[in-house]
Amino acid sequence: xxxxxxxxxxxxxxxxxxxxxLIAANRQDQLVTRYETYDDLLAYCELSANPVGRLxxxxxxxxxxxxxxxxxxxCTALQIVEHxxxxxxxxxxxxxxxxxADMKRFHVQEAxxxxxxxxxxxxxxxxxEAQRAxxxxxxxxxxxxxxHGRLKLxxxxxxxxxxxxxxxxxxxxxxxxxxxxxPGKLQLLREVGxxxxxEG
Length: 200
Prior knowledge:
The protein is an all-alpha fold.
């Protein structure tokens, strides 16, 4: 697989950093199953999510420092949204991506995540983390308007997917424990339109 990547790496002058970040994230996944603070979680997203956006920009020849900053915000947000959708599944694999400091603040114990329906404290915690993700998505959304063509559509799809997932979580009253709340296709298409128009 790495040999097949070599022509693209050379042609696009890709740097090793994004690849090394993804490898480091994989290694971290094998050792770390809890995150103490939100900053700790952001540091993990810096390795596990942000390199993907940076590679997309590099491969398409659209990297600038500002676009990288916006892309990082989007990728981190999408990672957090995925963690919120998968709280129950992650717990089943002995992983918790809700920061321990936030769990303490909202009086949430690990046992509260192991039930079939979330209580008020868990819902309040999920709503809090969802708002953080929403703010990051909004911060990064101007990236969509800074590019053109297929890349614009691709990035709009990513942002819209995150927004639609957050709306689904909200519609489920932030109860993510029965399973990941999923947006419908119509909601996703609406979010794509809003994102392309720069209204989000």
